[in-house]
Structure prediction request, 308 residues.
Amino acid sequence: MAPNPAIVLSGLAKSYGAVEAVRGVDLTIAHGETVAILGPNGAGKTTTIDMMLGLARPDSGTVSVFGRTPAQAVASGAIGGMLQTGTLLRDLSVRELVTMVASLYPNPLGVDEVLGVTATAEIADRRTHKLSGGQTQRVRFAMALVSNPDLLVLDEPTAALDVSSRRDFWAIMRRSAAGGKTVVFATHYLEEADAYADRIVFMTRGKIVADGPATEIKARVGHRSIRATLVDADPEELRALRGVLSVDRRGESIVLRCQESDQALRDLLLRYPAVRDIEVTGAGLEDAFIELTGDPAEEDDQRSEGAA
Ligand SMILES: Nc1ncnc2c1ncn2[C@@H]1O[C@H](COP(=O)(O)OP(=O)(O)O)[C@@H](O)[C@H]1O
Ligand SMILES: [Mg+2]
Prediction:
């Protein structure tokens, strides 16, 4: 790890009454990394992020951001945060709101530059309570960006958006963070973590259960299954298709658990032109969680039923 990491969380824990929301999180994030905190609802992502931003006080453990406390880092404009909840101040225009936020920081970016890069220039004169969901998230992102932070922390920034608004959002985020910013974002979408993060930190029940490059985590938890109707195919031959991990036959249907479902599907169609009723489904986060934590006694990937 780099000698001066951007973020160091050590032994972080926090309970709300009887609920242990975060149970001993250790995490070091280097400058310039884009890290996804991935996990199902209730995993402790927001609680962790709130402690990173100094909005929640840990019961134990420490947070260091650029060698400072979160409060110091936030006050200096080094952190731009986009929280999971929160509404925009009403009765201001988008431009007025972003200008106001900019005035709170020592070295803000130009307001027009931020409006441009976040695709909010065309709604700059609109009142903040007359925006669509996607527009609201872009404005909230503009507010996070205008302090010109070295670290962007985004808590489920696309949670309520439709697919195309989500894609737009990430395209904008990518563009604006391109200058070497450190980015930490929470999501419960494996696809989003895979597409936009260099590294995935998988949290569940208040703990980190996996941490690694997106490709590695995806390979461990991102298996897809192909279901189809196919009479009289030899399971051994199906298993030999590229990308297939295991084969399950149920009457006339087959289920192929795949490492590489696109490849497997191509081979399946080529080899068995009679195959029909094809469905491809992704493993949900709950499956991923079971796969990662399923049986502590067995640590390899061979434990699931029917694995090759
Ligand atoms: N303010 C709060 N009061 C009581 N319980 C809370 C509060 N915030 C979070 N929790 C609980 O802590 C756990 C972790 O929540 P959270 O950090 O919001 O998870 P995530 O963001 O991964 O969905 C959940 O069980 C949640 O219900
Ligand atoms: Mg949350």
Q: What stands out?
A: The domain at 223-282 is CATH 3.30.70 (Alpha-Beta Plaits). The first helix runs from residue 45 to 52. The CA atoms of residues 77 and 183 lie 15 Å apart. The chain has two domains: 7-219, 223-282.
